[in-house]
Design brief:
homodimer; Aspartate Aminotransferase, domain 1; 14 helices; aromatic-amino-acid transaminase (chains A, B); transferase (chains A, B); cytoplasm (chains A, B)
């Protein structure tokens, strides 16, 4: 079997990307490591003036038999001791560490080799990449990687596609740059391929076509929905037909779980006897379908290791990654050297299998939290036809969908405006001591231009409002308490008897 | 004495800044820490799932009696042991650490409080801020902070002012964004205030005025020049007269040194008996002159602790910093939590005095390296009138200025084009085993629009070319060796007998 090369998609690049010149200093920085050259070329401080040495940090040890939340004792049995020296050590048997003398220096704008090689192997293990010239690039997390995506591809006035409700910071970043976000209808299973196709088939021929679709396929923020493999294949086909890129923003990818089972007696958490079984259970990604470098995947450690690492990676064709790299050289330069040394030091000690063990453990924890949240919602919320709960199969979020017209004062106090009901419920809920956030915070506002086909305008009832909650941020007892407070508030607001 | 508030400079903001909406999720993230609220609001993973605890790192201990380059032994006498726990510890006498449970979490887009308070105190100690509502904001280093500056203030087509030769990555970032960089003449003492004023007095009335001046006042990159206090005061007055902001990019500020003294017997390194003396010896900064919030100062740890910390800070008025913060919330979010925990953990143990001791030690090292470089230049370079050396009093860079027309083949092989001579010398130098970089790499190209007054076009001889070298990146023996190779190459190129 011959493996194909990616296509040339450089015609999607922004004016900024096209105008960007590589820094000439970056073209000679490799001479810093050339033994035949005395490097008087760039302002690189000598590492002897970096004040740090002997970085040590502890983590639990794979396969994490007590669960990933268990604190290690510090003993060899359950504790992974990560030690990163300032200077390169080459003793046999040692793990692939990034010495501080290198990670704290300039250079390596693609990321440190020891970090990239781990992430590259991980990516191929999970996604089984289908074209030859793919690669990975270190990022400062997905917020930054998304903003870079906009800069790499979009000019002011360009249009992109996104789920009708999406992560507000992502939408706002686009809007501030003058990029029109065209909303695509979604249901409880995510983006609706038929609606997407209809939008593009009926695209205003006077208007430029969208450059890409921005999607959060797994545990979508805010709806909690996840795209099926089948929908992904359909969407990829539409992207080929109408020639746009797909940006998959996947911070929640590894928070996939069993389908929710309301009957606790029938609830059995999936167990994986091997990591291969776990990998096989995962949803197909857009990048795994991709045969031509049409997909850019934004991956992050924020939800699986910790947001403050400000470390993630992009998977895509080398051509596209080069454009990101040139942008990075003028923005973040590279992610923090401490972050790279610590994350690579930990992951290279855990190994690929150990990291998958961690992710399996994480799946277990979130499965339990999701179950607790949905159980509590069924227990504490009014069981009324105007309140609807869709148990998620991935991610951190659940939604409580409400028919605002069921509010006793809908037509009077709230003048039949569902957003006013939403705001009133939000205020009531917060004053009841629980924070869930209103759906309107996530609504893409870029609806008017270019004109949408009428049929896609209202896929759901216009009086439908929703609140996004998360089971991620608090322990199980507080979670139940929070949902109870939410339920009490809704009983009161809608005047339903308990 | 009443302390003034800053002026409102929001009319300089870019369209993007004006269009930027705060993320509504950021408005409620503080409720995460509210004990009366069950936080189901945002996708914050619980810190029990962060795999790290017991971060430890070693640094030398103030007052660094063996010099800042000496490796600590690990003993209590000469080693500062930084330990950062996952969870908050509140034992009396402990330093102000940022626990990993917080630094690795979302939130604190201005920076972690323990980091900011150190930097705030340091800033006031050094610059003695003159207006009331100033503050500091954590950044991912000056490359990122500069790019953010462009986004905060500039629209496509705007003009800014910069030194005629400046850091190429800074210039290229502006150019890629469609921002015209108007070059201002500089000499061996930096920007020439009279030329700056002349440019603005003669500004094309049809063209929009520049929004700001971008300057590297200390150890300017690439020329190595440093602005005197007097020139800074003049430039600030011109900025007030013509109403533009001043962006001072100051990575080399603490690499100030004694004036170069060629006669080694008369060379005495300045010693400071107190840190106050050291602070008093420093050049006045633009921010220290500023009475109205007209200056934005970009400060960095890259040159004083290590580039890979990707950590710095901006000093400016709260109004302006708010615009950066809103941009950061959609880009970097915040600098790496590991970087903040380690840097704050180290600096809060060293204390303000200890950090100044470090900076005094650094000054000593760079003074010695500068002396070695300039000594070697005088020793090894052809002593000809067409080669000119300006010993720097700050920073990492020296320049070798050459009259290209002195090249024996100037009019023949090189067709009287100094850039061709520059390129030929560059290639010769690299093939001789030393890297110095040609001045043209740093030349601002935005000269044509709007028209410059004729007098500012050629402040120096058009046949003058230069090469930038650094004494930062290599130890003293290699430095001498490199300069010797450079000298040999120049002897050969110019056919001068030794």
């Amino acid at each position: 079997m011959t493996v194909m090369e990616s296509k040339d998609f450089s015609y999607f690049f922004s004016d900024e990307t096209n105008a960007r010149k590589p820094s000439p200093l970056k073209t000679c920085i490799h001479l810093f490591h050339d033994p035949n050259i005395v490097f008087l070329g760039g302002g690189l401080p000598m590492s002897k003036y970096f004040p740090w040495d002997n970085l040590q940090i502890e983590s639990p040890l794979p396969p994490f038999p007590k669960g990933i939340g268990a604190s290690p004792s510090g003993s060899k049995e359950d504790t992974c001791h990560v030690t990163v020296k300032k200077n390169e050590t080459t003793k046999a048997g040692e793990t692939n560490d990034i010495p501080l003398s290198r990670s704290l220096q300039y250079g390596f704008s693609q990321g440190q080799p020891e970090f990239l090689s781990f992430v590259r192997e991980h990516t191929d293990k999970i996604h089984k990449m289908q074209y030859a010239d793919w690669d990975v690039l270190a990022t400062a997390g997905n917020t930054s990687a998304w903003e870079s995506t906009l800069r790499v591809f979009c000019n002011r006035g360009d249009t992109i596609l996104a789920e009708r409700f999406s992560f507000s910071a992502s939408l706002y970043a686009a809007e501030a740059q003058g990029v029109n976000v065209f909303p695509v209808p979604l249901d409880e299973h995510g983006l609706i391929p038929e609606k997407l196709e209809e939008i593009l088939d009926n695209w205003n021929p006077e208007a430029a076509k969208p450059k890409f679709l921005y999607t959060i396929p797994t545990g979508q923020n805010p709806t909690g929905s996840s795209l099926s493999d089948d929908r992904k294949t359909q969407i990829y086909r539409i992207a080929q037909k109408h020639d746009f890129l797909i940006i998959e923003d996947e911070p929640y990818y590894f928070l996939q779980m069993d389908a929710y089972e309301q009957d606790k007696s029938r609830r059995v958490q999936k167990n994986f006897s091997t990591t291969e079984e776990f990998v096989a259970s995962m949803a197909k990604s857009f990048i795994s379908i991709d045969t031509e470098g049409r997909v850019v995947r934004l991956d992050s450690f924020s939800k699986v290791l910790g947001p403050g690492t400000r470390l993630g990676w992009i998977v895509g064709s080398k051509q596209i990654l080069d454009a990101y790299k040139m942008l990075h050289e003028m923005t973040i330069q590279n992610p923090s050297g401490f972050s790279q040394s610590i994350v690579a030091g930990t992951l290279n000690r855990w190994g690929q299998e150990g990291f998958l063990d961690w992710l399996i453990g994480l799946r277990r924890e979130y499965n339990e939290k999701r179950d607790a949240a949905i159980d509590a919602l069924y227990e504490y919320l009014p069981r009324s036809s105007f309140i609807n709960i869709n148990p998620p199969i991935a991610g951190m979020f659940f939604t409580v969908n409400i028919d605002a017209s069921a509010h006793p004062e809908f037509a009077t106090t709230y003048k039949s405006d569902p957003e006013l009901v939403e705001q009133a419920i939000y205020e009531k809920v917060v004053s009841s001591g629980v924070l869930v956030v209103p759906g309107k915070w996530f609504k893409s506002e870029g609806e008017t231009q270019p004109p949408q086909p009428a049929s896609s305008k209202a896929v759901s009832d216009p009086n439908n409002i929703f609140f996004r909650g998360t089971y991620a941020a608090v322990p199980l007892d507080k979670l139940r308490d929070g949902v109870r407070r939410l339920g009490d508030a809704l009983y009161e607001v809608f005047g339903v008897a308990k």
